[in-house]
Each structure stands twice: as structure tokens, then as C-alpha cells.
Amino acid sequence: MNPRLKPLAALLPILFANIATAASQPQELANIVVSAARIPTSDVAATYASEVHTRADIDNSGALTLYDYLANHTSVSVMPSYGNRFTPKIDMRGYGIGDGYQNIVVSVDGQRLNNIDMNPQLIGGVALSDIDRIEITKGSGSVIYGDGATAGTIQIYTKAHQGVSIQAYAGNNQSFGTTVTAGTRNEYFSISGSYDRSATDGASKADVAGHKASSDSEIARLTLSGKLGDALTVKLDGYNANLETRYPGSLTQSQFNSNPSQSAGNTYSYQELKSNYVRGSLDYQLTEQLKLSASHAQEDKQSAFVGWISNYDHKTDEIVATYESSRIALTGGYQQFDGTRFGSSDQTTKKNSAWFANGQLFIDALTLSAGLRQEKVAYAYNPTAGTSLKQDNDLQGWDIGANYRFNNQLSAFANLNHAFQAPDIDRFFNFGTFNQFIAPAKVNTLNLGINHVTAANRLKVTLFHAKLDNEIYYYSTGSWLTSYNTNIDKSHKYGIEFQNTWKATDSLSVSGKYAYTRAIIDREQDGGGAYNGKDLPGVSKHTVNLGATYRFGERSTISLNQAWRSAAWAAEDFDNNNAQKQRAYASTDVAYRYRYQKFELFASIENLFARKNGIWIRDDAIYPVNFSRAWRIGIQANF
């Protein structure tokens, strides 16, 4: 057996351990609550598929950034965007590592991170120390989140800090980081803040200009909250993120096999990312059952490459009413997102406005849910010289679901969701020249699942099937002069997902996730039918994530995690004909924490066996990622 896969093989028997044996254990797992529908619900009673990661999971992982955690500790496929970890590529449910990120809504406390163009979500602007939990909803979310929630959502919820915490670490490749958090609260007022700074030179050798593949991030966040009387809560929060990254160019396969850290004569890409965000919100509890909420947020962003700068202005408004009783829960309201990109010779706007309503009915052991969203997407292109263009789309999202609890341990759920993806503004242009207003993508996704929960074991199994019209992609002719953005006429996706958490003893906890995913192009007229019946590129059929955490007494914890994704067609290989395929991804990570009074010592090793990982775009266009061993050691003091 390949020695790199031994940790995986060792954990497999534990993952599929007999549930009845687990039920006999005296330990208890914590209840998990999901809130994708804006109504907190136990995950075993939810009508949709979900995956939740708690603060304890994050602490035990040894991850130091949100990218690290998502990439190696969840079922989601996350890879650097051509080497850029701050705005990575994300795939879930078989939408591909190339464009999958545009089919997932990523939010922080309900605020979208999705851009109006093809820049991926700015994951690097969220400090891991601020996160309370991560909720991943699959094949649902179109009613609450709308445009882009075709594969699902990744919802990040932050926490209010209490007391003072100071953390510092250092590692190989000239890596270092510091984090300071502080907060206090009482019955009527709370204030919470954080500062996070990290930097690394990266594992690649210097380029022809002497630059390392480095990255540097600085993130500051502040949240104020106060109660004005018994019913009104006012909240103001904001953050500032300044990020710099320099990442390598592509390698041929022979270069990658020989030494993935080489520069191969490339000049590394350099990008600066800046984000300033502020949000104000009001919650008014009209009655014990009825609450009104309103918020306004504004984000100013800049993405700067050498010779190419884009400035963004994003505004978000929301008014929501929520009603909860023992029998019924309702939420509905109005949302608006107004995004503008200012280029050197044009101004392009994408404005989303939507009404939505969602409800749940509780009838003894049965939960029924239904929701509807009506959304208008308006585009405006205003060049400095030339003709202005406009286009509107009226789109609908809807969702129906049911959950039946057979007993205290077993429940089943079913969910049918209709979602849509309106094209981003870059899809209408080919290297600065207007192309066309292409059609929005639409998808119907059916989810069928079961939950089996005992005191010591939690199992979730989900089957899904998605049928798509007009899936959006980039058709390449081999020349950028004639290539263009367009739609896949018909496509479908299906698969099965397993999640299992087993508290084997008071000291040992084991978790496992497995997904089998197929993504098929049924019909596409471009290319003369060459893509018909082919696999969508960049989609791994098999995804595995296994972890084990062992606690030594009250002070020490060690965690082992194995992430693995099977080989796939290269990202641009739509006719499945390239000589080189995307190789399987693997990373074995180990983390250790020692707690003594107010101090914690921690150490972690990522990619223990130095597996050579990369992103295959096409033949001899390989971007090396996570190809070497990385270690960190640090200390945290809590006061």
C-alpha cells in the first residue's frame, strides 16, 4: 500500500463502525443546529442537506486560515485560483473547480461575499479566529440567498469575543502570524474586536525578478451591539482587509514532476486586494413571536494587478420579518444587492432585487417547508465612449421539503429546490469587446436523505440529482481571440454523500465524509456536439475526508486528518480528450494543542508526506499548490 494512504486506510474501519455499538457508549454528542432558512432548527429535523463545523472542530483542526480549513477539513473542494489562496476556486456538488465558485453563495453573518464579476469570493478577508461555526447547505438555499445558490451555500457565522486573547506562531518558509482578540459584554451592551496579521514567503523558489511566491494579509474587525429598551437591538460592525499575494505561473508536466517549486523562468503574478466593509442593523421584537429586522451594508473593494485595477462598490439592503410559534415558523422580506465595477474605460452594474417568503409547519413528528423567491437582475454597461447597453432578467427560486422523525434516532428528509445563476458581468465580454447577453442557468435539485443519531454516533446520508438548463461556461477554441462565454444546453449531476461522527470514548472522536459525484454534459451545440455525453471537467468522482481527535487528560489534544480527492479531467478539457488529467489530491495533516491555565501551545503539520499537488488546466499547464510539507508552532494566551 502507498504509505501516504495508510492514515486513510487506518481510519476507514472506524468511520463505518457499527452504529449499534456506538449507541452503547455512554458519551453524548452535542446537538447541531442549522439556520440556513433563517429559522434555527435541529439538523435531524431539517428538510435540507447540511454539514456543520463548530468552533471546537476549527480549534482541533490546527488550521490557521479559513482557506486551510475549507480545503482540508470539509467535503467541499477548494483549490487556490492559479495559486491565489485569498480568492480560491470552490466546487461543490459537481459544478467544477473552474466555475464552481459561481454556483455557491458564500456569506458572513448573512452578507454575501460573491462578486459581480469573475473574481472568486474573498475568503482571505475572513480571519479564522472570528468564526463561530460554518454551515454548508447543499442543493438548497435559493429562497433565502437567490442568485448563484445553484450548488448550495457556505454560511460563515462570526462570534463575539470575550476577554483578551493573544496568539503568535512561526513556521517554515518564513511564515509567521499574530492574532489579537478582545471583547466585553453585559446585559445591554457588547463590543468585540480582532486583529489578524499573517505572512509567508511560500514554498516556490524566487522568480526571474527575485520575488518569492509570498502572501501577506492584515485584517481588522470591530463589532458594537446595544439594546435600547427591552425590544430594540442595534448593531454596527465592520472590517478592513489588506491583502498582497504573489503566485507562480504554470509548469509543464515534466517540470512539475521534476520539481514543483521551480519558477521555470516565469515572472510571478502580483495582486493587491483591499476591502472596507461596514454594516448597520436593527432588530425589533414586536411580540414574543414576531420580530422585524433591517440592515444596510456597504463594501468598497479594489483588486489591483500590475497595469490593471478594478474598483468595486457593493451596497446591500434587507428588511425581514420572522414569526415563530410551536406550530409554525415564517420568514419573509425584501433584499437588494447593488454592485458596480469601475474600470478604466467603463462602468458596469449588476443589481439584484428580490422578495422572498419561507415557512415551516410542525405536525408532531412531521416538518413541512416551502418557500418562494422572485428576483430581478438588472445589468447596465456604460462605456466612456460607445453605446450603453442594458438587460433585465426576472427569475424565480422555490423550495419544498419534508422531514419525518420515525423515533428519537431515525429521521428522513426530502427536498426539491429550483435555483438560478444570473451571469456575472464578465460573461458578456471577450477581452474588452462586448459579446452577448447570455442566458441565466437554471437547475432543479432533488435531495433524499436520512439521519441516524445516537448518544455517541451521528450519521447522515444524502442522495441527490440535479437537472440543469443553460449551465454557464467558457467555450475555448484554442485561441483567446475566438473563444467566448456561452451556455451548456442540457446537463445533469447526481451522487451520494455520507457524513459520520463517532464519539468512540471520552477521549477519542472520529469523523468521516465521503461523496460520490457525477457531472454529465447531455447536450451542447458548440464544438459540433463533441461535448455531448462527456464528464464536466474538474469534478472528482470521489471525495474523502477523515479525521480523528484524541484527548490526553484535560490538557493535551492531538488531531489527524486525511483529505483525498480522486483524479478528474483537466479544468478546460470539456471533450475529455487531453493526454494529461487532473491528478488526485491528497493531504495528511496533524495538529497538537497543550493547555495549561491561561496558555495554549500548539503545533501543526500540513501535507505531512509532502504530496505533490497541483491544478491541471490543460496539457502542460499545471499550477503547483500545497506541494510541500508546512509546519507551524505557536502559543496563545487567554485572559
Counting structural domains, the number is: 1
Major pleated sheet: 22 strands, antiparallel, barrel
* CATH fold-level assignment: Maltoporin, Chain A
Q: Indicate the proportion of strand residues.
A: over 45%
Number of E strands: 35
Radius of gyration: 24 Å
CATH level 1 class label: Mainly Beta
Give the CA-CA distance, first to last residue.
Answer: 48 Å
The helix count comes to 6
CATH superfamily: TonB-dependent receptor, beta-barrel domain
Poorly predicted parts: 1-26
Mean pLDDT: 90
What percent of the residues sit in helical stretches (DSSP H or I)? under 10%
What is the 3D shape? globular
Question: Which second-level CATH architecture applies?
Answer: Beta Barrel
Structural class per helix/strand content?
mainly beta
Structural summary, described in words:
This protein has 639 residues and is mostly beta strands. Helices cover 6% and strands 58% of the residues. It has one domain (3-638): Maltoporin, Chain A (Beta Barrel), CATH 2.40.170.20. The longest helix has 10 residues, at 6-15. The protein is globular, with a radius of gyration of 24 Å. Residues 1-26 have low confidence and may be disordered.
